[in-house]
Amino acid sequence: MADSELTQDTVFVDAAAEKAGQAPNERSAIYGELERRAKGKRLTPAQRRIAQCLIENRNEIGFLSSLEVAKLANVSQPSVTRFATSLGFNGYLEMRKHLRANLVASDAPMEPTTNRYQAAALAEIQNLEMLNAVLGDEALIDGFGKAMATSRPLAVLGLRAAAGLAAQFSYFAAKVHPDVRLLSGGGSIIEDILEQVKAAGGKTLLAFMMPLYPRETLKAMEFAKEIGLTVVLVTDVSLADNSAWADRVLQAPINTDLVFDSYSSPVLLVSVLLDAMCNHMKTESQKRLDQVDISSRKRKVFIR
């Protein structure tokens, strides 16, 4: 967890389970409870590490001492106690008892032979179900689409772990949008490009931010707002408030069970945002797609 990690209040819903009358899975339950209690609070980096540790070790919460949690999160034991009291508990023991009591086992059957890779795939399915609930807010998606479609040029930012998402969006967006400018390298040149975007009439910065969160991403969003750009942010689901950096926020859960995080729901969001942007470009997007298709066929770019 990086020092600059941030989050936003989000309703956690296991849509498929709810529809079927089932209880939400344990991961969603502890996410939701910690998020509810952290609402309106600015958690310290150490406290965010503790929260992540509790989520990752949810099956052992009822048995871990405050010292054991501190060692797992690489923080001091008093930090664990302060985290508990900051969430409104009298101490760590009360927090542990409360979290354990509020965890609900998922009704979804799991084969005893499920290995860690299959478990990761199941976790991503749950993440997509959570994203499904977020996508129910059509006004939010539409707001993203309009902000991107009306910005000429459109700046797209993605550094480090988020660079792939930004590049994927930019590749397809350039087929329909007349001027997409990808910012995938750090340093002061980001501010130069943002100033150029603003001078050319651009209105919006679309930012992708995934853990660990580069300080340069935060700095770029702050600078974009200073010069009058609207910042729309796609990030993961965590535990605080990022309204200081972005005007609109879309959050998608990621899976942290493997050595490196996996991003099924943010990847789906890329396609959703592209679709929302095209909706606001009306016939212009289809005309540009037709032109791209004619050109690629003429130059025999693709095998098929």
- The low-pLDDT segments are 1-24, 104-111
Content-based structural category: alpha/beta
User: What is the CATH class designation of the largest domain?
Assistant: Alpha Beta
Inertia-based shape: elongated
GO molecular function: carbohydrate derivative binding; DNA binding; DNA-binding transcription factor activity
Domain HTH rpiR-type: 30-106
Protein name: RpiR family transcriptional regulator
Keywords: Plasmid
Task: Write a concise synopsis of the structure shown.
The protein is an alpha/beta fold and 304 residues long. The chain has helices spanning 15-19, 26-38, 45-56, 66-73, 77-86, 92-102, 116-134, 138-149, 163-173, 189-199, 215-226, 264-279, 283-298, and strands at 154-158, 180-183, 204-209, 230-235, 248-251.
What would your notes on this structure say?
The protein is of the alpha/beta class. It folds into two domains: 24-105, Arc Repressor Mutant, subunit A; 119-299, Rossmann fold (3-Layer(aba) Sandwich). The chain has helices at 15-19, 26-38, 45-56, 66-73, 77-86, 92-102, 116-134, 138-149, 163-173, 189-199, 215-226, 264-279, 283-298, and strands spanning 154-158, 180-183, 204-209, 230-235, 248-251. Strands 2-1-3-4-5 form a five-stranded parallel β-sheet, sandwiched between helices. Strand 1, helix 9 and strand 2 form a beta-alpha-beta unit. It is elongated, with a radius of gyration of 21 Å. Pfam families: HTH_6 (PF01418). Residues 30-106 form the HTH rpiR-type domain. Keywords: Plasmid.
